[in-house]
């Protein structure tokens, strides 16, 4: 059978899924490029972090030097400022001022650590400064051009923790050559702690590891000293060029981070694809179900019309015949009346089924429960249908256990359920004329079964016969009349009674429908 609706929904789904799948594939093939791009972004971020640490240290240094640059014009005030600077900054040990020949103008500071008040040390510093005459000259030349660049001398032979940083601060007198050079004695470790590390800690959001390394490769500071790291970004400190500042990402590398990012994105896309795919499958299933239901409904309308037309035609025909008074024989007349009655009862059953079904669908069906003795109820129900069965030539084998306990049920509803089963057994008996009805107690349940030796039901159909409107095969070619509502009603009635319905059937061998009620009821 062709299913155009499925073809259309398939096409629609493809239109939905295709752009997303194309995008996913594009992302997959471009993943190397994306990784490189993400790495580049992170690289820049690390660079920026090193830059801002360097910039901050430099600013600090610049602030110190600007505070002392006015020495020539306001010597007393500047000296006071220098004393204050020394008091406030632990890393600044001392400050000296040199004239353009490198001779000391004055010196202030906590020098006891370096010089130990001994002349020899002072002399050594002086000798060192003299050694750098050439660089000092160049520094002065650049200062004239307006470019202040410090010269950092380490005083390893006196104290390895101290650097002397020389910088031209002001021209002395009229000659451009006469520059005053400031010398700042810096305690490197204190500077690292108070300025560099503090700045880094301020920037770090917990995802970075930072370290400072000396020229000899010795690590002077490491924010995560427990593990050894290969740092991804390194820069020389502008203010102390023999130190390297280094940074890396915590717990990962740039490469693996960018890889993770891309993998996460791809996984996310795949999940969306999958969800969309599942959604489409569910949608198609629902569309197919809805279409099937619509088809069954239209079959139902055809069936009901057919079901109504036949008994009405029969009733009319027999009534007319009787009215004309042509039938003389009393026997025949009685048969005609009985047929009219039978057809009326068939019609009322049909109408009842339809009305009940519509009540169930609109949730307005009400049940009245009462305690019922099943054997009495069953005998009573059978006595009403007996005549109908006899007429059709059926032999009814009834096996009722009179000892079964009572159940709580809606009498009308269970009668309707049972007669639906019995009617089906009659309808689908084929050539067989035997029906068996049993009532017994099985464990904690009351079991009522209706068995026939008729056409039987294929296993594949057995799953569907309890659905509304479902009829085995096409109803229009069916020579047995029906609406496809009977069993769905029975199933509903059993659910309301907290019981169940089961079927055992074999094609060509017959079927047994069983109703199970809980003893004592709901
Ligand atoms: P209807 O009998 O009006 O078609 P039902 O809901 O009562 O609707 O039954 C659904 C279908 O189940 C029937 O069309 C028939 O194909 C199948 N069926 C029900 N009872 C029997 C039975 N005793 N033997 C064989 N087939 C049956």
SSE diagram, text form:
Blueprint: H1 4-29, H2 31-68, H3 75-88, E1 92-98, E2 104-109, H4 112-115, H5 119-131, H6 133-144, E3 151-154, E4 162-171, E5 179-187, H7 188-203, E6 208-214, E7 219-222, E8 233-236, E9 243-249, H8 254-323, H9 330-361, E10 370-372, H10 374-391, E11 395-400, E12 407-409, H11 411-427, E13 434-442, E14 445-452, H12 459-462, H13 486-496, E15 500-506, E16 510-518
Helix pairs in contact: 1-8, 2-7, 2-8, 8-9, 10-11, 11-13
The protein binds adenosine-5'-diphosphate.
Task: Summarize this structure as a short list of keywords or feature phrases.
522 residues; 53% helix; binds adenosine-5'-diphosphate
Q: What does this 3D model show about the protein?
A:
The longest helix has 70 residues, at 254-323. Helix 1 (4-29) runs antiparallel to helix 8, helix 2 packs across helix 7 (188-203) and helix 2 (31-68) packs across helix 8. The mean pLDDT is 86. This protein has helices at 4-29, 31-68, 75-88, 112-115, 119-131, 133-144, 188-203, 254-323, 330-361, 374-391, 411-427, 459-462, 486-496; strands at 92-98, 104-109, 151-154, 162-171, 179-187, 208-214, 219-222, 233-236, 243-249, 370-372, 395-400, 407-409, 434-442, 445-452, 500-506, 510-518. The protein is built from 13 helices and 16 strands. Adenosine-5'-diphosphate binds next to helix 11 and helix 13. The site of adenosine-5'-diphosphate has 21 residues, from helix 11 and helix 13.
Summarize the structure.
By secondary structure, the chain is of the alpha+beta class.
């Amino acid at each position: 059978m062709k299913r155009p609706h499925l073809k259309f929904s398939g096409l629609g789904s493809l239109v939905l899924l295709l752009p997303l799948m194309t995008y996913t594939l594009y992302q997959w093939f471009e993943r190397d490029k994306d990784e490189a791009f993400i790495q580049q972004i992170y690289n820049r971020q690390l660079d920026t972090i090193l830059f801002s640490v360097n910039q901050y240290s430099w600013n600090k240094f610049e602030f110190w030097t600007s505070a002392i640059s006015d020495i020539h014009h306001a010597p007393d005030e500047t000296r006071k400022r220098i004393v204050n600077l020394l008091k406030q900054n632990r890393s600044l040990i001392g400050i000296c001022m040199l004239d353009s020949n490198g001779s000391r103008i004055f010196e202030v500071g906590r020098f006891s650590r370096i010089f130990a008040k001994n002349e020899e040390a002072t002399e050594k510093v002086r000798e060192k400064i003299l050694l750098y005459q050439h660089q000092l000259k160049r520094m002065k030349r650049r200062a004239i051009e307006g470019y202040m660049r410090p010269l950092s001398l380490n005083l390893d032979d006196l104290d390895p923790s101290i650097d002397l940083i020389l910088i031209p601060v002001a021209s002395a007198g009229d000659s451009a050559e006469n520059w005053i050079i400031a010398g700042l004695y810096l305690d490197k470790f204190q500077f690292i702690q108070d300025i560099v590390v503090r700045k880094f800690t301020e920037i770090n959001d917990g995802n970075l590891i930072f370290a400072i390394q000396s020229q000899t490769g010795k690590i002077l500071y490491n924010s995560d000293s427990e593990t050894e790291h290969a740092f991804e970004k390194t820069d020389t400190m502008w203010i102390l060029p023999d130190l390297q500042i280094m940074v890396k990402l915590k717990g990962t590398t740039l490469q693996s981070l960018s890889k993770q990012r891309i993998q996460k994105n791809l996984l996310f896309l795949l999940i969306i694809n999958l969800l969309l795919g599942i959604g489409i499958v569910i949608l198609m299933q629902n569309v197919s179900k809805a279409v099937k239901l619509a088809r069954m409904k239209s079959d139902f309308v055809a069936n009901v019309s057919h079901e109504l037309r036949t008994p009405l035609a029969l009733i009319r025909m027999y009534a007319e015949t009787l009215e004309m008074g042509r039938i003389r024989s009393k026997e025949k007349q009685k048969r005609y009346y009985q047929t009219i009655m039978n057809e009326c009862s068939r019609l009322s059953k049909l109408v009842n089924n339809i009305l009940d079904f519509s009540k169930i669908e609109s949730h307005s069906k009400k049940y009245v429960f009462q305690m019922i003795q099943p054997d009495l109820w069953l005998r009573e129900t059978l006595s009403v249908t007996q005549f109908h069965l006899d007429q059709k030539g059926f032999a009814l084998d009834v096996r009722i256990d009179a000892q079964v306990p009572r159940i709580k049920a809606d009498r009308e509803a269970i009668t309707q359920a049972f007669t639906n089963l019995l009617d089906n057994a009659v309808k689908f008996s084929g050539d067989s004329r035997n029906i068996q009805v049993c009532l017994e107690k099985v464990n904690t349940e009351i079991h009522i079964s209706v068995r026939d030796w008729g056409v039987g039901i294929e296993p594949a159909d057995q799953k569907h016969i309890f659905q509304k409107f479902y009829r085995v095969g096409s109803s229009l070619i069916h020579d047995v009349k029906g609406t496809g509502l009977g069993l769905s009603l029975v199933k509903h009635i059993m659910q309301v009674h907290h019981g169940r319905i089961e079927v055992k059937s074999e094609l060509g061998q017959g079927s047994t429908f069983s109703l199970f009620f809980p003893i004592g009821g709901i």
